[in-house]
Amino acid sequence: MTPEPAPSVSQLLSFYLEAGVDCALSEEPINRLAEPDRPADFKTAAPARDVNPSRPTETAPTPPAAPLSEPPPAPDAVIASARETARTASSLEILRDLLEKFDGCALKSTATRLVFADGNPTARIMFVGEAPGRDEDIEGLPFVGRSGKLLDRMIASIGLDRTKVYIANVIPWRPPGNRTPTPQETQICLPFIQRQIELVDPDILVTLGNPSTQTLLATREGIMKTRGRWLSYDTGTRTIRAMATFHPAYLLRSPSYKRLSWQDLRAIAKALSQSAS
Ligand code: URA
Which of 190, 219, 223, 272 is the most buried (most CB within 10 A)? Predict the structure, then answer.
């Protein structure tokens, strides 16, 4: 049998792109197969993270280590454990630590880092997107890429900036190649974003785009129907006003909808000023 010809560089790059590998994370490749055996508690070891001096150093308890040889738990059990874990978080710092240590979502193993939130945890308005993309995965902050720049301009158009809003995503890890998160991944991450909303306790929740709207506002209707209408979101402690609007990435692709998005933003600004008085 004649051996297959070696692939060209461009064929290899196309293969990587199709597999979702679209950025280099270090100068040299790492041969994972040549790595020595990992310790049994590898899966529960918290990854190193930047120390933010402005954050209190509260830490969450480390969940018990599961031996690597055990079969993966059933999806329902992982969702139940996500619910139980998120419920125990008494602050955003603890919730973040718990997420850093949570191994129930496979997206964590392909993402570079956790993308927890940006902005002001005491803000009266909270924006929630779908999932981090490549730029967010590199920086560890939500909405810092092209769509994030547009979100900044949308927020600025109603006189706000990142010091006055809180921004997060339903999914806190980048899906490989920006693929759509699976329903199971969404259900596993849902208790964490729900707890995050409860802890921030904003007066107004803005869901950006269809996935975040359908997940958080429990609707099956599309964004064309849901956007611009006041809905309610039960944080678990109280009911807050919620509005869906277009995702900035969608507005970049379809700028003609910016007009409708401006209407939504004006309604949001008006509600904010009314709830302040
Ligand atoms: N799109 C999202 O939904 N969230 C981000 O953080 C970036 C892009």
Answer: 223
